[in-house]
Amino acid sequence: MRLAGFEGGRIGMVDGDRLLDLGAGTGAGGGPATTAELVALGLDAATRWVAQRAADAPSRPLDDVLLEAPLSRPGKVVAAPINYADHQEEMRQHYDVSGLGVFLKAPTSVTGPGSDIVLPYVDRRFDHEGELAVVIGTTAHRLPVEAARGAVFGYTCLLDITMRGGEDRSTRKSFDTFTPLGPWIVTADELVDPGALELTCAVNGDVRQRASTADLIWGVDRLVAYVSSVMTLHPGDVIATGTPAGVGPIEAGDVVEVAISGIGTLQVGVSDVGATTCPTRGAEHGPVAPPVAR
Ligand code: MN
């Protein structure tokens, strides 16, 4: 099933070109009131609840609804820094997850479909990174690789928007709006194999990144297991699996789209409203950003 958030966290289920409104009259002891609370039930209980609700839920055309991030404030957003060989090459990095581990993005950086990435500075470079995101569905600590998939609730598309330069990753990637998420969560019972998905990231219709998740250096199972060995995972936590080659700058007025087969397309705009000059000087000492291919 495909679970979406809309109108302040109401729960929607996408059914073809219709959105079923599962949110009416829920919460306050009557069941989950938001997609985050639904995910917290775990996949089996969530599936039962949705089946019960969907039977007589009102629906409307999906095109008429402005969706929100399916999880507006994940408990944590964990991300793989280098997890495709071609991106490792373009960044001139010697290491992948094996050498770098993972990093955290602020949960407040999450934004939803149709919203704008807001660039904070006029004098720094900001890049798109299209990624497959894993949504966790159980509490998990030190998972064996073989058990990792059982902790997954589902998958969605994610943009890991990044300021290039030498500041810490948690600064460069945690500005508000720097983690677009959506358009919905496809549950793990529907998307059974996350290991062979086609991913593209386009700017203004021009495809800049194209990859298969078969090329992930650390695949979903190994990555989820590893993250759970570092920090206890909870339902609704999000793990960004890393980006392939083709990262490049975005600017105000751009439209950025990540599309993943079996999931859908996440589209956002780019704005620079309120941008100022940057108070930090990482541009002077950071790793060299890849050349701009236009
Ligand atoms: Mn990334």
Structure keywords:
294 residues, alpha+beta, 12-stranded mixed sheet, 15% helix, binds manganese (II) ion
Walk me through this protein's architecture.
By secondary structure, this protein is an alpha+beta fold. Helices cover 15% and strands 31% of the residues. The chain has six helices and 20 strands. It has helices spanning 35-40, 43-54, 85-90, 97-100, 169-172, 220-230; strands at residues 2-6, 10-15, 18-21, 59-61, 67-68, 77-79, 103-105, 110-111, 116-118, 126-128, 130-136, 152-159, 162-163, 179-187, 198-203, 206-212, 238-240, 248-249, 255-260, 264-271. The strands form three sheets. Strands 1, 2, 3, 4, 5, 6, 7, 8, 11, 12, 14 and 17 form a twelve-stranded mixed sheet that branches. A hairpin with a 3-residue loop joins strand 19 (255-260) and strand 20. The radius of gyration is 18 Å and the shape is globular. The N and C termini lie far apart (38 Å). The mean pLDDT is 95. Manganese (II) ion binds at residues 79, 129, 131, 160, 240, 242-243.
